[in-house]
Each structure stands twice: as structure tokens, then as C-alpha cells.
Fold these 2 entries.
Entry 1:
Amino acid sequence: MSIHASAGEAGVAAAEQVAELVRSNPAAVLGLATGSSPLPLYEALARKAVDMSAVTAFALDEYIGLPAGHTQSYATVIRTHVIEPLGMTTGSVHVPDGNPEDEEHAGGAYEAAIAAAGGIDLQILGIGSNGHLGFNEPGAPFSSRTRAVTLADRTRRDNTRFFGTLEAVPTRAVTQGLATIFDARHLLLIAHGSGKAQAIRRALTGPVTEEFPASLIQLHPSATVVLDREAAALL
Ligand code: F6R
């Protein structure tokens, strides 16, 4: 774990871990969180000008039902904050299909693509204020795989800041499962701000329980947590 004076400094430290991996393995496979937590990482990584053109990546999740090109769809966010600034290859960066024909089978092809890429070397994660990882909300099984899920009310309220109104926030999403996340060879969890302090305390020092999905990180053999002082305040 490392604790930094600001979110920006935490982002620089987290970016260095990603850069080290990609310098040693230019064809590394990354898992990509969206939301606000990883933005300082992506910005710092862009400044490092590491060659990311051979990297493969898999986004953690996508909202269901947004029209293609919607500014808040994670496909759009990944394109504008990750693919373009980092010079990644569009066809090598995967985002779950947010308009699946059949929600029941929404995750199978994504799981197969991750497996075909050789699995995820490094999964970048944020944490929900309710302890979610990806969109695996409290109660999600640790054995879960990529699938369609219903967002918790608290998640929809938290994400209203991206959509303007609560009604505009989708109610469903496709997310990598907790077992999918856990299979990554390394986890890199990033949190900043006082709004995350309680969740970080429970994730790192509370009981390991499906009622608080991020507590799963305690069981992972290779996990790094990068925080600013505010997110670390209750540790
Ligand atoms: C985003 C994701 C979510 C976020 C979490 C924190 O792809 O999977 O788990 O990481 O909701 O969001 P922010 O970083 O916006 O506070």
C-alpha cells in the first residue's frame, strides 16, 4: 500500500506500476476501470509516453442501454481517456457490449476473449462507496463471472454526478465478475477523497465477505492499494 499527499501524486505512483509492467512486457494485458478514480493514473501514464500500442485491455464494465456514442458510456470514456491519449490500438481494447441481444448470455464471449488473450496481467480497480468492485454490488458471489447485473441505488445516486439526474443513470450494467477480477495476476486498487475512507477501511481491515465485495482484495496474492491521504484517513 502507498499513501500520497494528493490524488495526482497517487496517480503518478499508480502509473509507474503500469509503465513498469508495459516496459517489461509490451504485450501486457490490462483490466481498465472507468469512473473518476483512475483518471489521474491515465493522465500520468500519458505523460510518460510509454509505448502502449501492443497492449491488450479489457474494461471492467459497461452500462446497459445507453445509445452508442453516449458521452457516459464506458466505451466512450475508454476511448477518450485511455485509447486516444495513450496511443492504444482500438481493436485491442475491449469493452463489454452494453446492448446485448440476450442479457442472460451477456458475459460468455467476454470471458472467452479474456481467456484467449491469456488472462489479465494487471487489473486497475476503483472502489464504490458501498464496496462494489466493477459493478459487483454487495451480495455478489465471489464466484461470479462477467454478466448483466442491477445497479444498487447507492451506486446510481453516486453516479448521478456523471448524468445530471438520477433518472438518467442506467439501472443495469454488464460487469466482469468477482472471480474474473480475482483471476488477474495483479490487482491495483486506487481511491482518493474522504468519500472513500470508510469503504477503504472496510475493504482492507473488515471481514472478508460477499456483503462487501472489495474485501475480496484481502485474499489476492498480489494486490497493491494506492491512496491519497483522505482515502487512507480511517486506516
Ligand atoms: C468503474 C467501476 C466502478 C468504479 C467505482 C468508483 O469501471 O467499475 O467500480 O471504480 O464506482 O467510481 P469512482 O472512481 O468514479 O468513484
Entry 2:
Amino acid sequence: MDISEVIKVKRDGGKLSKEEIEWFVSASTSHEIADYQISAMLMAMFINGLDDEETAQLTIAMRDSGEKPDLSSIPGIKVDKHSTGGVGDKTTLSACPLAAACGAKVAKMSGRGLGFTGGTVDKLSAVPGYVTALSEEEFFDVVRKTGISVVSQTKNIAAADKIFYALRDVTATVDSIPLISASIMSKKLALGSDAILLDVKCGEAAFMNDIDEAGKLARTMTEIGARAGKKVVAMITAMDQPLGKAVGNTLEVKEAIEVLKGNGPEDITELSVSIAGMMIYLAEKAESHEQGKAMAAEALKDGRGLMKLKEMIEGQGGDPAVCDDPDAVMGTAKYSRDVVCKTDGYVNKIHGVTIGLASMNAGAGRKKMDDVIDLRAGIILEKKVGDAVSVGNTLCTVFADDETKLEEACRTAESAFVIEECAPEKTPLILDIVTNGSI
Ligand code: URA
């Protein structure tokens, strides 16, 4: 095929054939066509869009452009979970053990964090001894024995996505619903689980700022799942402030453990139970989401969720005592400083991106992929949206092992809080659930 002719179809607003899409993906992956031609095609797709059929065909071709682990030797229904990204989101550590405790099989590959967003692999690296880079056989073995494993992504999953994403990042073509959907779903489908729970974040600190756009993204991704023959459900959840109170690797592991002990903040506990409930339902261990939630709540109450996390940590070489005494096992940062409130009123907003940047400034996040991070750095929010505050109250505490980083991090963290005279309206955390007829 001639790349100029294929680009022309999309440039002029036409529909690409399956063959043209498959050829474009394979020619990109084999470097048969140049980056500027790939970028031109991505821009044409960005501007003129892709219909559901084209989006699904692009996703499948991208899925097949890299390696695909074969999970079939693990008995039971494997359920994956993906969040589109949120500051303080540690639900992989709190919801997945609850789901596994109720019979779902979780074989999960996660990534490292970059910029203001954290990565589950970094969080798990805060547990002494925990090995995230398991061989495929070791990974499968942990899932067979415990029902859950979370490892770093070692395989070359959806190779075309790496090429496309790098080009989209520098050509202003990231925020396109079909391209985001194909990027996320190609990786999730390649990882081979039977069902996928998507947590589509909506709000100021998310890719999608409003419910209509988040709904479109959720519908596009569930539609791709249905066309690929997988059960895919998307929960649209609010990302108007950080989730829970802890941001930063060690601090987030500790908070996930607190959730599983029944002592976690309300929002992250509610979301963990709801996500786990949906995963249990997708694994066909419950008749409905409601029943799944009740099962997850029971596993939280009787400690089976915490036991599951402990088993996974032990299965991957980590110190299981972290679940009993996180501070003793993971340690705490050398330095901390409180950010103090300067006015009376109510917290109306906590800008999530700003808190993420403050945590990164404290040392918890990377600016470049090869930066070394301070696992114990981060922030604990003492006040959340809706809380009444008075002069002198602590809004949050910033932690770091490097004292020189504290001041700038505190200044940034303080700017994240919006205090007003009146209390804000209470808004729900779970905004919508999109099933697209797949369950
Ligand atoms: N996350 C992804 O993996 N891909 C996108 O395109 C956007 C967010």
C-alpha cells in the first residue's frame, strides 16, 4: 500500500478499511514508514475522528503488534482493572485484594509513575523485598497460589502504542477519544484477562474534565471490549481532589493497608469496595454488582482482603509484616512539615494536579523516566473538600528525606487548597457505570 494514499483517505474525512488500518499499524511497527508519515496519519485521525468500527480495528491491530501473555494456564476468570489516572489512586492495592479474596483471579501488570501521577510498581517497591520483575512463570505461579499478583510490565505489550504515544505526545494529538481508547484498550486486551474494569476519572485532575466527555471515553472503550469479545465495564468516578488522604509511595501503601483494616478514608474505601464488587461480579462470583459489593465489604470487615494482600506480598518476596506495622517495616521520611491554614472557612477545592506536583517536588515522583525517587516522600491531606477549617489548622503535612525539598513542596501544596466562606455542595464519587450491554 502507499502511505500517502492511506493518509489521504483519513485527511479527506473518509473511512479507513480494515486492511488499511492493519497495514498502517504493521508498517509503523516494522518502521517501513517514517515517523512524519505516522504523525500525519495520527493528526488526520485526531481531526476527522474514527467511527466505532475503525476504532475497534485500530485497537485490535495495535493489540496484535506486540507480545501477548497467555493466561490460560491460570484456572478461573481473570479480571483486570485500569484507572485512567488519578492523584492518590491506590485502588489496585486496596480493591484488587478484596476481589481476589472473593474468588476473582487478578493477574495484573502495572507501570511506573511519571510526572505528577504515581505508578503502582513504585508503590509496591516501597515494600522491602517485593519483586515486581517476575518471570512469566513466577508471575503465573503467584496467581495460581494466591489468586493475585501485581508485576511490572516486562513484555513488549502493544508495540505500536509505544510508537504512536511517543509521537502523539509531541504533536498535540493526545486528547482524542478514539486514540486514547485504542491506546488504553490495546494494552489491556493484549494482557489477556477475560474481563476488564475501567475506572474512568472525571474532573479537573483527569484527562476528561466533564461527564459528557468521560461518558464518551467510557462508551468507546466498552464498545471496543464488546467487539473484542471481552466483558468490559467502565465506572466514571470523580477526580476533583486527590483520592484518600495519602499521596506518595510509602504513604499510599500504608493507606491501602488502612483501608483493608477498615480504618481508611471514606472516599477511597467506598471506591475500593465498589471496584472490587464489580470485579467480583465480572468474575461471575456474584449475581450483581450490589452482591459483589456486599461480598467485598464482608472481606474487608473480616480481614480476608488484608490477608490476600499479605499473601501476594509474601509470594513476591516482600515482608508480609508490612501489613501489621507499615511504619516499622517501610520506615518514615526523615523530615516533615505542616502546611497551616491562614483563613477560616471551608475547603472548597484541593487541586489534584497541584498536590501531585508538590509530592513530586518533595521527591516522590520522577520528572524523567530514569530519575531515582524518594519512596518515603509525599503528602498527607489532613483536610478534604467540605471540611471546616480555622486559622492554624493543619491542611496537610509534607514528608521528605531531603529537607531542602520541603519548602518548595509546602508552598506548592498550600496553593492547592481553595478555602471559601461557605461549604461546597457534596457531590458523588461514583458518577456513572457504563456496561454497554457486555454484562
Ligand atoms: N493513557 C494511555 O495509555 N494512552 C493514552 O492515549 C492516554 C492515556
